[in-house]
């Protein structure tokens, strides 16, 4: 357990620095392209998201689900898995090069898949395509980074994968800052953009990803592996990996198709209100606690859970499930409460005015509905992966993806019918996604419960309900502090800096009251959670 705690702290600390520097990166980017109602911002947001979507297919669809358990098994080979890793790395590099080349050729088509040409101006599509040519090479480096990172994670070297993105953020901040010095900002109008401006912004975005991957290579020897090209792929288990990856690949494709529907619907609000970039920024804020809490704590658990599953120790797997959900739940519930109360000041960090923050905050609030369910899903879904079952997650993800697409189309239809104002289109789409994820986690939990003959739901569901009960008065206290500060439209939303300060103030009050309530009722999960938290504090 202590090794998991140390790994969680290492990942968590790196994730905090990475996410904070990532927030600063977005702040500078918003100063360049704008946020709410920015056609140029939506064009860049779309283009820069394309390689991320491919990265999601590669990382979540293949590597995380399939490769980690396979590397854990290969470690038992006489060579410690070195030959397997070399073959895997060579194969992955070839596939990534091919995927990047195809994407570059198909860039204009890909852009029009994500944007509804009937809802946006041709100039905006042209700008998004120009940005895409600069951003799509990220596919190769994102994929290489994910492949290297998952191999390191499987070898229990967790730090580099978490800390490497900081380099990307620092490069982007410096590059975006240079753009502001040369060209000023914000430039939300698509006709303002010259080839030089497009090349600088897109080149900086891709250059950061390149350096992020190079940094990860430096730490390769710490895993005790010698990387060498190996094109002899016989014996690597491609047929077995292919069967497993096939389902996860299809699963992520379902998510991407649903995302395409969402983006096409959101493009109808581009240039007038919260749309593509505003939704992306709200999702980044939403993912901040998820990344810091769920990934930092859950990733070491997944490696341990995979080991227990490979050894056939089902009882230990169930213990891992209970322990991880209870620990994740304690942190995630208070994070949800704090972000909900501080949604306007938190959103102000990624907008250029108080009015834009008020317009974009509902998008964040709607996403928050599924923060706790996604934390539970992280554990449940990866338990299926640990047992080499990627087929079942495909089907419950298929349900979720279908609901996401249908809810997005329904939101667009509601706007067209005048039932929902255009300014709330992005929030309505986000709510549909959140509710779809809630349905997904319920289905996944029921299936896993039956598959393992029980996953001790009675041991982790009541604690989650207790955490929610403690978070309600804590949120009330935070809201009171926000009102004392003048409310959502008070000084907390005057600027980016006051937004960050206000969000931190409200969040601190919510956290303090939450911990106090749990301490009064002697919640058993509090002591280990505080012990984990103290690991982040500097020692004397």
From TrEMBL:
Protein name as it appears in the record: Murein biosynthesis integral membrane protein MurJ
Keywords: Cell membrane, Cell shape, Membrane, Peptidoglycan synthesis, Transmembrane, Transmembrane helix
Name of a matching Pfam family: MurJ
Membrane-spanning intervals of the chain: 7-34, 54-76, 88-111, 131-154, 166-185, 197-220, 241-262, 282-303, 324-346, 358-380, 392-419, 425-448, 464-484, 496-521
Subcellular location: Cell membrane
Membrane topology of this protein: Multi-pass membrane protein
Keyword Membrane in record: yes
